[in-house]
């Protein structure tokens, strides 16, 4: 943005960007750490235990995927600016269904019942659920959800839940 509040848009890419990791604010680190490790199978790569500065680095195969920061004072608020949802990609629809089974056994709150398509007639889809602080989460695949219902008519399923 320039000094007058008008955006300056560059059209030349500097390099190739990809998501490095995502950081989430949580209310209780121990509870969230347990959820992400048990429900989603993340490994603990490192943590800070100092009072007032607690955090955990989570990942797979030594690669950082998610950082939890214990600095939230309240639950996730979907109506405020910021994170809409955090989506994870699975390799197959069978993996999505296996996560669904694990999450149900843990009593996790789901946004929709079972696997749903990303939109009407879409081959992509997955499961949508919430972490202990109410953060919206998704595990999906690009194909394999053919024939699954689309709970939101005329719009992406992952946009309105």
Overview of the structural elements:
The structure is a single chain. With 161 residues, the protein is α/β, with parallel strands linked by helices. The protein has two domains: 18-73, 2,3-Dihydroxybiphenyl 1,2-Dioxygenase, domain 1 (Roll); 84-161, 2,3-Dihydroxybiphenyl 1,2-Dioxygenase, domain 1 (Roll), CATH 3.10.180.10. 14% of the residues lie in helices and 27% in strands. It contains two helices and eight strands; from the N terminus they run E-H-E-E-E-E-H-E-E-E. The strands form two sheets. The chain has a four-stranded mixed β-sheet, with helices on one face. A four-stranded mixed β-sheet has the order 5-8-7-6, with helices on one face. It starts with 21 loop residues before the first strand and ends in a 20-residue tail after the last strand. The model has no long low-confidence stretch (mean pLDDT 92).
Could you name the key traits of this structure?
single chain, 161 residues, alpha/beta, 2,3-Dihydroxybiphenyl 1,2-Dioxygenase, domain 1, 2 domains, four-stranded mixed beta sheet, 2 helices, globular
Strand order of the largest sheet: 1-4-3-2
Helix/strand/pairing category: alpha/beta
Cα-atom radius of gyration: 18 Å
Q: What does the largest sheet look like?
A: 4 strands, mixed
Shape: globular
Tell me the domain tally: 2
The number of helical segments is 2
- Cα separation of the termini: 32 Å
CATH architecture of the largest domain: Roll
Given this structure, which CATH class of the largest domain is correct?
Alpha Beta
Number of strands: 8
By CATH's scheme, which homologous superfamily of the largest domain applies?
2,3-Dihydroxybiphenyl 1,2-Dioxygenase, domain 1
| Fraction of helical residues | 10-25%
Give the rounded overall mean pLDDT: 92
Note poorly predicted spans. Answer: none
Q: Please name the CATH topology of the largest domain.
A: 2,3-Dihydroxybiphenyl 1,2-Dioxygenase, domain 1
Helix/strand order: EHEEEEHEEE
Strand content: 25-35%
